[in-house]
Amino acid sequence: MKRTLQITVLISLLTMSSFAQKRSQVLPADQEIFLKYGADRLGKRHDAAMQRFRDNRLGAFIHWGLYAIPGGEWKGKVYDGAAEWLKSWAQVPTDEWLKLMDQWNPKRFNPKAWAKMARKMGVKYVKITTKHHEGFCLWPSKYSKYTVAQTPYKKDILGELVKAYNEEGIDVHFYFSVMDWSHPDYRSDIKSKEDEATFARFLEFTDNQLKELATRYPTVKDFWFDGTWDASIKKNGWWTAHVERMLKEMLPGVTINSRLRADDYGKRHFDSNGHLMGDYESGYERRLPDPVKDLKVTRWDWEACMTIPENQWGYHKDWSLSYVKTPLEVLERIIHAVSMGGNMVVNFGPQADGDFRPEEKELAESIGKWMKENGECVYGCDYAGWDKQPWGYYTRQGENVYMVVFNSPYSKHLVVKTPKGIQIVKGTLLNGKEVAVKETSRNEYNVNMPAKDPGAPFVIKLQIEENTNATDKYRDALT
Ligand code: FHN
Fold first, then answer.
1. CB of 447 closer than 6 A to ligand 1?
2. pLDDT by residue (tens digit) across 103-115?
3. At how many degrees (to 10) do helices 111-121 and 358-374 cross?
4. Could you tell me which CATH number the domain at 48-377 has?
5. How far apart are CA 191 and CA 92, in angstroms?
6. Per-residue pLDDT at 5
7. Which atom of ligand 1 is nearest to the CA of 85?
8. What DSSP state is assigned to residue 398?
9. Which residues of this protein are annotated with the site description May be important for catalysis (predicted)?
10. 222 CB near ligand 1 (under 6 Å)
11. Nearest protein Cα to ligand 1, atom 10
12. Model pTM?
């Protein structure tokens, strides 16, 4: 009897861990296992705050910390890895690294100018690294000795930025790394009772910092957690569920990324039953999701983030070490994300003096120019559900479907295939000028290119009529 019980327990443990390995595969309801710390909710959030997150669509990331001072170079050697990881690449002892605080005095830092630059770029929200892995805090945290308050600059950078961005109508999201290289109680794994006690102190410290952030800056709209992949966090899934609840109680409406979360079995992002934890999936870093494998079309909200060079988030002095995306390539990724029902966040790594490098300023300006004329196909738009065509991407808002054309065909005709029951009423450029639309066969149209090739990605707005009950005479006649 005892043996049978042992075998049964073993089988169910094995089954559970195999569930835990299958990413985002939702189990049939009757096969779901009980989870104390799994997803809080099934499906998307539909409240106004979440809708605002979704409608914003375009954001900027700011990675700013001590790593901006060496900019990828330590003791004469330039490292080509991500600049914000230099402490690790160059194996700099923590004390030595934190001495960089004596040099933190960004003389050219002008929060109002940063906020203007973001508004002109057309971003609706900015994600700021309150604390990256190095542990240096951009706010004067009373729980740490490693903050802006202990530097020659002294002032609360985060507070200045929140104010300036909010004044420009831009939402602020907080990036927060749980992994903290400056804290003696941080553990990457829990291997003993002692680790357990030490790490419990660390979690309490983290709770205090999070409560402090939520209290000092109540207009924050989102917490984006990072550095949560270590075994210590996976073994404390309860804590990630607690943080999500705690912040949501303190700041009603706040959104939280999936990267924070681990469940009872250490399964991250998606719980052991395959349900998304947090409010939106945030695993798409420097890549876009596969619309079929990853998204199952649009079952959950998501946000992708990207660097301009291949993999530099913080300031690196030498961008020639990897490929640097052109504004056009960045724009295409933004549109591609929106066309699949997601948000895109473009990263900036300001210099130690508080200014942005010229390449970043130029990129922001160029994206902003395009967004000013064409933002209608981005903000508030979603996945259209139409078959993708080689000329570009569709986005949709209500009865308007936007064609965002990146590749102009020689034929001067843009082929559009509509789902059954959808007819195109009219096509216009965003300046209101009409373009000819011809039905070529059932649910297939040729939309004319504008007479003069715009020479840059352009948008055609299709006004549609949906009649899903319409009998399809053509097909009905054939069958
Ligand atoms: O290690 C970090 C990295 O430095 C950067 O902050 C990115 C942003 O998504 N997140 C981590 C890597 O996943």
1. no
2. 999 999 999 999 9
3. 40
4. 3.20.20.80
5. 25
6. 37
7. 4
8. T
9. 305
10. no
11. 226
12. 0.93
